[in-house]
Specification:
By secondary structure, the protein is an alpha+beta fold. The chain is built from four helices and seven strands; from the N terminus they run E-H-H-H-E-E-E-E-E-E-H.
Length: 179
Amino acid sequence: NHVAYEFSGKIEYEDFMKFNRTHMRRLFLSGKKPLLWIFLSAILLLISISDGYDIAMHGRPFTDTSLFFIIIVCVVYAMLFLVLPKFRYRKLFNSNRLLQEKQTFTVSELNIAISSPSISVQITRDKIEKLVCTADLICIYISRMQAYLIPRRYFDDDAEFADISAFIKKHFDPQGSDR
């Protein structure tokens, strides 16, 4: 007499991108990492301000390499976080045949069963590393870097997605109070 939800669908590239954006954002902005980003940004800002002050006060022409260094750092950051991931994620998505198969989920109070033509797995709460729910995606992490994805588009409407999201949070969130 357990409540169970059943739904299915195929992961698309857009779902994979949303997952990776969410994952990378949480990876780089969790813990003390934001302080590191702020510290590095402050150092770069101080270098550029001190060079500007030095140029204005001493009237020397700008020959310093710090502005060039700042531009190079910004270009490298842009490449690492904006351009390269799109190519890398496309390659990873295309190479993962299991990910692209239609998956059927059966979610009950006891476990989350996932099946496709190639796999069948049952996940219990104690096997879940982390649970991340966004407006478009439910990410069920089974390790630090691997997750099963449930996109909102698997459901007919937003209310159904909200219901399953709340159910999964209640019964499977490792940080839940009733564990």
